[in-house]
Design a protein that fits this description.
Layout lengths: L4 H22 L1 H7 L2 E2 H8 L6 H10 L3 E4 L2 E4 L1 H6 L10 H8 L6 H7 L9 H8 L3 H25 L7 E5 L5 H9 L4 E6 L4 H10 L6 E5 L12 E5 L7 H14 L5 E6 L10 H13 L8 H11 L3 E6 L5 E6 L1
Parallel strand pairs: 4-5, 4-7, 5-6, 7-8
Antiparallel strand pairs: 1-3, 2-3, 8-10, 9-10
Helix pairs in contact: 6-9, 9-10, 12-14
Length: 331
């Protein structure tokens, strides 16, 4: 008889995620960031009934989100950094709540119709709607930080930044990627390039990192305007939003903006070459169909070919964090 394990693992993956989201919504991690607490003390502060709290908190221990010493609970380092609402520079909880609310419900309809259900006719329509209000801009920026922060830390350590003096982050959102790099490499300066509506969130985020003297915001539209000049240009979760023509246009612009010896760095949840193993990359490509008509994710070799067509002399692909990888092209 065939094992049901592949099916049951996905079932329990849903419930693991649901358990984390409930803890975020209840404020578990924010409360424990103040001080470790016994289970009954935490339940009292959060207004929780006694019945299921013990199993709930111990499930969070099993998920590596809480530690328990005796009957006292505390955040793990990862939960303390990313799930405590009192740390706005690194908090990702609200982003996880909004990203998981409703988006997956649209997938069946998209598969039946072949059309996005968010009302966007093109990718530009999507971004016009997203950047229409200050609240929607900030929510989107937090989502992008949640998506990028793991890769940002690896890129800060793994790329040869000692060989360069400046970088420009294209579609920077809050500036999480250049922020993490500059914290690690004090000789660098950075420009965050994005639509004008992103300025406030960018300056708030980089100010919280105490990097305002080394990072500046440059407003612009990367389809209408030329890209900033820097030693390294970074595209983080940008190319997958667009069709092939737009992808090639942005890489052509990057080549023109870079000095000789400069580099372009592209990081995404790349689809594996056989389209068999990186489920997250394929699911994210599905999400592009939900949100951004024309957008799609791609493999490393596909992007390397686009880079060569743009004129880059050398390219390579490197794994980053979890399902993410980066492609580097040198001019």
């Amino acid at each position: 008889m065939t094992s049901p394990q592949p099916v049951t693992e996905l079932f329990w993956a849903y419930w693991k995620t649901k358990t984390m989201l409930s803890a975020i919504e209840l404020g578990v991690f924010t409360e424990l960031a103040k001080e470790p607490l016994r289970g009954d003390e935490l339940a009292g502060r959060l207004g929780l009934g006694p019945g299921a709290v013990g199993d709930f908190l111990d499930a969070l221990v099993a998920l590596d989100l809480l530690d328990r010493t005796g009957d006292v609970y505390a955040n793990t380092p990862a939960a303390d950094e990313y799930l405590d609402a009192g740390k706005p520079a690194t908090y990702l909880g609200d982003s996880y709540l909004t990203q998981c609310a409703g988006l997956a419900d649209d997938l069946t309809g998209v598969l039946r119709t072949g059309e996005a259900l968010r009302g966007a006719r093109t990718g530009r329509d999507f971004y016009a709607d997203t950047y229409a209000t200050s609240n929607s801009v900030r929510a989107f920026q937090r989502d992008m930080t949640a998506l990028s922060i793991g890769s940002a830390r690896v890129i800060a350590d793994s790329f040869p930044w000692d060989d360069y003096r400046s970088l420009a982050d294209i579609g920077t959102s809050e500036g999480a990627l250049p922020g993490r790099i500059l914290l690690r490499h004090p000789h660098l300066t950075a420009v965050g390039f994005d639509l004008p509506q992103a300025r406030e969130g960018f300056e708030e985020y980089t100010g919280a990192l105490d990097l305002a003297d080394r990072m500046s915001f440059q407003p612009g539209d990367f389809f209408r305007d030329e890209l900033p000049s820097a030693d390294v240009l970074v595209f983080g979760h940008i190319l997958h939003n667009w069709g092939l023509e737009e992808k090639r246009l942005l890489l052509d612009k990057a080549y023109r903006a870079l000095p000789e010896g400069g580099a372009v760095l592209i990081y995404e949840t790349l689809i594996d070459g056989d389209r068999r193993s990186n489920a997250v990359g394929l699911i994210l490509s599905l999400m592009m169909h939900l949100e951004v008509p024309g957008g799609f994710d791609y493999t490393g070799p596909e992007c390397q070919e686009w880079l060569r067509e743009a004129g880059f002399r050398e390219t390579r692909v490197e794994h980053l964090d979890g399902p993410e990888s980066m492609i580097i092209g040198f001019k």
